[in-house]
Amino acid sequence: MAEIDPSDSSVRRRPLRLLHMSDLHISSDVYADEAFRGFEAGLKLGMENGADVALIAGDLFDNGRIKQSLMDQVWDILGDVGMPVVVLPGNHDTVLTDGARLGITPRDVTVMQEPEGEIVLLKEHGLSVWGKPVYDHHPGFRPMAGVPHRSDDHWYVGMAHGLYMDTPDPFRASPISPDEIAMAPCDYVALGHVHVFRDVSQNGVPAYYSGAPSGSQTKTVAIVDLDPVSGVSVSPLEIVLD
Ligand SMILES: [Mn+2]
């Protein structure tokens, strides 16, 4: 029988399935009803597929005019999904970066707040999630700059809400470069801001936009499997709203 090498961190990791969603835009002026149904449908797909953790990579809410009762309803729903939820505020989530509006969220729902970035540790799932909320959506804000080194043997997922560009454009806000993804010390990078499922992996670092579950022609969320043996695999799941 093979000895287990205690220095090999992979042996301590268990398979983990993530629901990765972004750009829900709840309370959108343009498609409020569809946005809410896409949110519910995305969570339902995650639950049906046995996701262990849900990641929302920005733009959960569309704008600061959202009614408190609707925000409360969203927290109630997220608090009842039966898995931890990590929310990274995107450029539309001004209600999440405004402490006065955020209020108290359910126990299993964490909204990242730290402007310089923070790590959310989900110990029972063997998962650490890093993200830097969008406080200032402008070209000088780099959502993937300064991802801290891995500090434990958990799965390590980065979240970022911004615009991946192959070639830099100094006028576009919240840019993400290929190098920033290539150098991220992460097992997976969950991106938001682009409303279409897209693989922007670099240098063996898997990085994907999940797509949005509403508002676009093809509506998707992503299921991400982290497996200590077979590695990381990502599947878009299409949302069909009737
Ligand atoms: Mn956005």
Provide a concise account of the structure shown.
This protein has 242 residues and is an alpha/beta fold. It has helices at 32-48, 68-79, 94-97, 99-102, 178-182, and strands at residues 16-21, 53-56, 85-87, 109-111, 118-122, 127-131, 155-161, 163-164, 175-176, 188-192, 197-199, 207-210, 220-227, 231-238. The protein has a single domain, classed as 4-Layer Sandwich (Purple Acid Phosphatase, chain A, domain 2), CATH 3.60.21.
Task: Walk me through this protein's architecture.
The protein has 242 residues and is an alpha/beta fold. The chain has one domain (15-238): Purple Acid Phosphatase, chain A, domain 2 (4-Layer Sandwich), CATH 3.60.21.10. 17% of the residues lie in helices and 27% in strands. It is built from five helices and 14 strands. The protein has helices at residues 32-48, 68-79, 94-97, 99-102, 178-182; strands spanning 16-21, 53-56, 85-87, 109-111, 118-122, 127-131, 155-161, 163-164, 175-176, 188-192, 197-199, 207-210, 220-227, 231-238. The chain has a six-stranded mixed beta sheet, with helices on one face. A hairpin with a 4-residue loop joins β5 and β6 (127-131). It is globular. Manganese (II) ion binds next to loops.
